[in-house]
TrEMBL record:
GO MF entry, a single one: oligosaccharide binding
Keyword Calcium: yes
GO cellular component: extracellular space
Keywords noted in UniProt: Calcium, Disulfide bond, Lectin, Metal-binding
Protein name per its UniProtKB record: Fibrinogen C-terminal domain-containing protein
Source organism: Oreochromis aureus (Israeli tilapia)
NCBIfam families, per database record: GGGWT_bact
Species lineage: Eukaryota, Metazoa, Chordata, Craniata, Vertebrata
Superkingdom per UniProt: Eukaryota
Keyword Transmembrane helix (UniProt): no
Amino acid sequence: MIVAPSELHSKISQVLASFCPSAKSNIRNLGIIFDSSHRLTCKVFKNYSCICVITELCYLNGKTFPDGVYYLTTGNGMLYQTYCDMTTAGGGWTLVASVHENSVYGRCTVGDRWSSQQGNNADLPDGDGNWSNRNTFGTVESATSDDFKNPGYYDITAEDMSVWHIPNNFPLEFWNMEAAAVLRYHTENRFLRLYGGNLFQLFKQYPVRYNVGSCGDRGPAIPIVYDHGDEDLVFKYIWFHVFRLKDEFEPGFITFRAINRERATMAICSGVKPTVGYNTEHYCIGGGGYFHPEQCGDFPSFDYDRLGGDQGWSASREMTEAAVLLFYR
């Protein structure tokens, strides 16, 4: 991919402006990305997310843009690549991160970027700290094969979130197939406006840190709208076998910063709201730098009674072997 030569930029900008008058005021921030055949493949706006493509340029000459990989820029002009969901609930969803468990048997070892790669250590209560820092890692195409975080995570000012649970190693070109997902949902009450506009700011208010609060202390629990699955699926199919937990949570929510009995902190409880909170390590993801010795990692204790055991305290194989993709809009 190369940036279009400067002598072409003015002419191309004029053409795009003629198609989309509402974009005229933003043309100075427009970058044009070409492939080696000089075919227009992507529109780039400074400090915009995928929703910009919907609101400003998506209806060029009556055409819409498909789901797929796009280039965006940050407020400081950094170019980055991400996936845009242009379909769900009106589209405009920007992929900003994925949480992938590379080895559920590891206990805060290499690859546990959303908890700690530095071992299970109470003296490092924040772990790697990636829920609330500007570190980035991974690539969009490998977001179901490894952890991923792009600058949009901290740069975009958003209102809502969408979450996809996609099986590990699933190819990007098929992510948008409904049957591909274990679970998909989004929020629609613009809750991020109350917490700084993104997860970076939310987790400044609710730190993902060991011993930051007491058992049952949690951040906001936000109602969700299901795009694939329902409450029955969440309760009976995904978590049903964790029988001891059936009275500990309520499906139909996404919850942030949950704290368990041992004062370990988890970042996100996907699809559920803890009502007691004693054992959130079995169904919440991410975390700080210290857990009970058998619970440390990006999926802290999903394998407590062996991987995919469908018994005791283990989470389902479907959830354990799926990456969690996080989108903003």
